[in-house]
Amino acid sequence: MIDETSNISSGELVNYSLAKYKQNELVYKFGDYDYSVNLQYYQEFQDGGKQFDNNGYNHILINKDAETSIIISKENKDLIDILAPFSYFFIFLALFLTCFYMITSFSFKIINVQISFRNRLQFTLFSIILTSFLVIGITTLLFLIQLNDKKNNEILSEKAHSVLIELDHKLGGAESISPAMYETLNEWLGKFSLVFFSDINLYSVDGRIIASSRLPIFDVGLISKLMNVTAYDVLANKEKLLFIQNEKIGEYEYLSAYVPFRNSQNKLIAYINLPYFARQKELQNEITSFLVALINIYVLFFIIALLVTIFISRRISKPLLLIRQSISGIRLGKSNEKINWARKDEIGGLVTEYNRMIDELSKSANLLARSERESAWREMAKQVAHEIKNPLTPLKLSVQYLKKAWDDNEKDWDQRLNRFTKTSIEQIDSLSDIASAFSDFAKMPVQKMEPVDLKKIIYNAVELFKENSTVEYVLHLPENEYIIIADKNQILRVFNNLFKNSIQALTSKKDGQITISVKKSNSELIVMVADNGSGISKEMSDKIFTPSFTTKTSG
Q1: What is the pLDDT of residues 371-390, one digit of tens each?
Q2: 513-521 and 68-75 as β-strands: parallel, antiparallel, unpaired?
């Protein structure tokens, strides 16, 4: 290794080829490129320069002197080599995006933000593909390393046995190796090194160096002159026939093989060592090149697989998105569109259920509308019945009271008849409005706003009920008229309801009393109707303004 920088077989030149020409004839070549035996062959490719391309290689011609020329060649980069930097960038970008996705996903979970199904599907497929590529790549790389190690061991074992055979031809008859033979052994080992492309060292039976094809390595102290302890123990004590291990010179690691050398009498006279320097570096470069090519191919496949993943995830999530949009557009009481899906798959089953739900929803909407209409009619019937019964009750009592006055020949019968006629006409007009409104789909009468005398309306309502009950009416009404803008019939119905309810609340009292008072407050009139009945409990007071609420069991 001491002259490794100047040795053309060094691992530093593993990617290069070299040719040396003397008087235009090839005298030496190194590397994979197949050079022509005549330098004149390359003249047509030079185009007046010393750098040219031929057969996929870039060549540089160096004229050392008038007779000596050297060509150094290197293989041109192919597409994979050109794309290699982009592959590394893509790998870095993929790792960065993966980390970013994991961090953002964790953040989203903290703030309870949901990630879409499409993104989860894409990430799952992406993770499966990436994991598959990593597993395949790592497995392939490990297998390649194991295969190379096995190949190296086989090659080194074969070389070691070949050297053993050559030395056996030279030293097979020797009883031992004497110092006088060291010089000759160095020459033999140097020649064998050129033949087998490997350094060769020879150790004595006690593990000391006695000859080498590259003796300066030991002289300068790069390698110890003593045999490796482990190798010596395996061959000398355990009597193995071959031992191969990795050794180091500084940071440089190489493969080294040891075999025992026995003479024709089967006597151990030396140990042969083959350190595999240049080829080991070559194999490391081969592994690196393979790894780069593997990464480039995997990156290409990964990009294709990523695009396919995005396409597939979109195809899978598209029908789900369609279903989501259809569901979000469902409106009760409107015509909802069904989804057309021809395939009989899981999505098809989901679409079938959705379409069935649309049909069921339509039926339910029709039933609900029918039920609401029937309920509205029932409520309206109750309301109309209530509005009609209010004036009918005092009218019936008034007729009965008027008949009694006729039968008794009351002196003021004419006056009573006039009052009864007037109040009866008002109540009948109210009933007529209710009947007209009911014919227009259960609407209450349209308000007819006009000036009315509030005092007169209260007095007429009291007169109607006063003649038909034993309840005492106490009126606190103003002397002057109180003209208000209101619907006369509606105001009359209000007082009818109030007086009727008060009378019903006082049926069990002998001294029942209803007090009606009117007060003016700024621009408003306040009418208060009070009775001395049992009143409303606290539990019921919150419900008095609920529609149709009552405490009565009848009426």
Answers
A1: 887 887 777 777 777 777 77
A2: unpaired
**CB-count exposure of residue 423 (10 Å: 0-12, 13-18, 19+):** buried
Give the predicted TM-score (pTM) of the model: 0.43
- In whole angstroms, what is the distance from residue 301 CA to residue 330 CA? 44
Do 279 and 411 reside in the same domain of the chain?
no
198 inside domain: yes
Q: Phi and psi at residue 53, in whole multiples of 5°? A: -115, 140
Q: Let me know: does 88 contact 98? Beta carbons within 8 Å.
A: no
176 shares a domain with 314: yes
Same domain? 67 vs 169: no
What dihedral angle (degrees, nearest 10) is formed by the CA atoms of 451, 455, 458, 462?
-140
Query: Dihedrals φ, ψ of 66, to 5°?
Result: -65, -25
How many beta carbons lie within 10 A of that of residue 205, not counting itself? 18
Structure-block tokens of residue 466: 């006063």
Partnered with residue 21 across adjacent β-strands are 26, 69
Tens-place pLDDT, residues 314-350: 777 777 777 777 777 777 666 777 777 777 777 777 7
Q: Which domain covers residue 68, as residue numbers? A: 11-76
Q: Give CA torsion, residues 353, 356, 360, 361, to 10 deg.
A: 70
536 and 442, same structural domain?
yes
Same domain, 126 and 71: no
Ordered DSSP codes for 7-40: -TTSGGGTTEEEEEEETTEEEEEESS----SBGG
Q: How many domains does the chain have?
A: 3
Could you tell me if 383 and 501 lie in one domain?
A: yes
Site of tokens 């893509």 = 90
